[in-house]
Design goal:
The chain is an alpha/beta fold and 515 residues long. It folds into two domains: 274 residues, 3-Layer(aba) Sandwich (Aminopeptidase); 173 residues, 3-Layer(bba) Sandwich (Glucose Oxidase, domain 1), CATH 3.50.30. The protein has 14 helices and 14 strands. Strands 1, 2, 3, 4, 5, 6, 7, 8, 9, 10 and 11 form an eleven-stranded mixed β-sheet that branches. Strands 13-12-14 form a three-stranded mixed β-sheet. β1 and β2 form a beta hairpin. The protein starts with a helix and ends in a 14-residue tail after the last helix. The N terminus is likely disordered.
């Protein structure tokens, strides 16, 4: 009996020591969050020193190397996981444009990634795109050396260069040709009979109808109207068309121009004014294949090394801006959480993985690669905490009943971080399990039944943050992130992920997803 009591006392003493160590680690995280928070320094490196990080670019490779070096410096195990390959790469340089003449003005525009730049400084006249074969034949001699104003409003994508796009344009041209014949009859009847019947409108909902023909005629590039702020995505044929190679790249510019300038120039063309536009667009391609990688920082668990807690953000960002919000605000918070946990003296019971995913913007590619490579881990993941919604502070988390008591205990220290930010655990669920890929990397995991409970965020101090204004636009910069919100988010992520990692049991998935 005495020996049993001694063993119990020893185990209790060890457990108490471990508990005190974990409490001390959480306290240290709170102290770092309050006095030594590095989240904005990480964001500065990602968005200002490195910049836009589209996969396939040297900037993305530089960012992956930097994140890996940070994890390594903090004593974490580092894995560089190959997530995929692109047939060519892309680097963006500066871009400039101006209207020449009496109404000279600088032009405000963007171009999607993986589209052509100019061949140095190029200057040319301007024409409106033709909508029928007759209009094209009348204009074809003037297309050489011209900038062409095309119909439609920019949605971020360039002109569709795919076979499906060619087929749709051919169909619309045929319809417009028939409409043109009918309009000829209407015009002749009006002349003969003195009537004023209106012509039938030609279809203009599909832009750049004579795309291939105008390129063959020698146009300098295409210009489309864009709402402000301007959105710029990428040429999707790089992922879907096997002919997208270094020897078969897009050859003319695809320019998205400020709608106010576009309308002014279009009116000048309508009035047949002689105007010139000048552009210098430095879009450059890299010979492929070009690999892209996930970066994983690992803190191995002391008691349950084969159970996992994940925190993630995506490393890639569109290069028309600098990715300061999407997903710089998410990833920098995760990186800082990793630093806080690794430097706090914590010895988590479960393995903690901090992941910078690749290619989220090109179709959640990095997350899909990780799930495909780690099927044995999916049932052992307590939760994936993915941050990809902007630089707002976490204010709550909604969890199933079976997890509620655990999260109340885990999240209790959050309210010690900053009195301006209170945090609440809410009971909810079960939740809909996605059947197809969604808008963030979390959906890849949720489809496999992995818990992806997320921290609810809110602009509680009223900084008038508008994610729609920034999402994939020229305004996605460092200055759009909110430092105090970012600092709170990084600290909360560190506390919550460590708390989940230190539970003496795995989180229950009961009541997580609807059956």
């Amino acid at each position: 009996m005495k020996r049993i009591l001694l063993i119990y006392a020893a185990v209790f003493s060890l457990s108490a020591t471990t508990l005190r160590a974990q409490d001390a680690a959480t306290k240290r995280i709170i102290e770092m969050g309050q006095t030594d928070n590095q989240v904005m320094n990480h964001l500065d490196v990602l968005s200002n020193r490195i910049g836009g990080r589209v996969i396939g670019s040297n900037a993305y490779d530089n960012a992956a190397d930097w994140v890996a070096s940070q994890f390594n410096d903090w004593g974490m195990e580092v894995e560089i996981q190959e997530a995929g390959t692109l047939p060519v790469g892309f680097n963006r340089g500066p871009w400039f444009g101006k209207l020449l003449g009496d109404k000279s003005m600088p032009l405000h525009f963007v171009t999607p990634s993986y589209t052509s730049g100019t061949k140095g400084v190029q200057r040319g006249h301007v024409v409106n795109e033709p909508l029928t074969q007759g209009e094209f034949d009348q204009l074809k001699g003037k297309l050489n050396g011209a900038w062409v104003l095309i119909n439609g409003t920019n949605s971020g994508w360039p002109v569709d260069r795919s076979a499906a796009g060619d087929s749709l344009r051919k169909q619309v041209i045929s319809e417009n040709n028939e409409t043109g014949k009918k309009n000829g009859i209407i015009m002749r009847d009006n002349w003969a009979n003195g009537t004023k019947n209106q012509p039938i409108a030609l279809r203009s909902d599909v832009p750049c109808l004579f795309y291939r023909e105008m390129i063959d005629a020698g146009v300098l590039g295409f210009i489309q109207s864009s709402e402000v702020p301007m959105r710029a995505l990428y040429d999707r044929t790089i992922m879907t068309d096997s002919t997208f190679t270094f020897d078969n790249l897009p050859t003319v510019c695809d320019i998205k121009l400020n709608e106010h300038q576009f309308n002014e120039i279009k009116q000048m063309v309508k009035e047949r004014q002689d105007i010139l536009l000048e552009f210098d667009i430095r879009n450059h391609f890299r010979p492929g294949p070009v690999k892209y990688h996930n970066v994983i920082g690992k803190i191995e668990g002391t008691e349950f090394p084969d159970e996992y807690v994940l925190a993630s953000g995506h490393l890639d960002a569109f290069d028309v801006a600098t990715g300061g919000v999407d997903c710089g605000s998410g990833l920098s918070s995760v990186i800082e959480a990793a630093r806080m946990v690794s430097q706090s003296g914590a010895k988590p019971k479960r393995t903690m993985l901090f992941i910078a995913f690749a290619g989220e913007e090109f179709g959640l590619l990095g997350a899909q690669a990780w799930v495909k490579a780690n099927p044995d881990k999916l049932d052992k993941i307590a939760n994936l905490f993915n941050r990809d919604g902007g630089p707002l502070p976490p204010v709550s988390i909604t969890v199933p009943k079976a997890m509620y008591a655990d999260f109340v205990s885990i999240c209790e220290p959050i309210n010690q971080v900053n009195p301006d930010y209170t945090f609440e655990v809410i009971e909810g669920g079960p939740f809909n399990q996605p059947k197809r890929l969604g808008g963030t990397d979390a959906s890849v995991f949720a489809m496999q039944g992995v818990p992806t409970l997320s921290l609810t965020e809110r602009d509680i101090k009223g900084y008038d943050f508008n994610y729609g204004e920034i999402w994939h636009t020229e305004r996605d910069t460092y200055t759009k992130s909110i430092p105090e919100y970012q600092e709170q988010a990084a600290t909360v992520i560190a506390i919550v992920t460590l708390g989940v990692a230190n539970l003496d049991h795995q989180l229950s998935r009961k009541g997580l997803y609807k059956k």
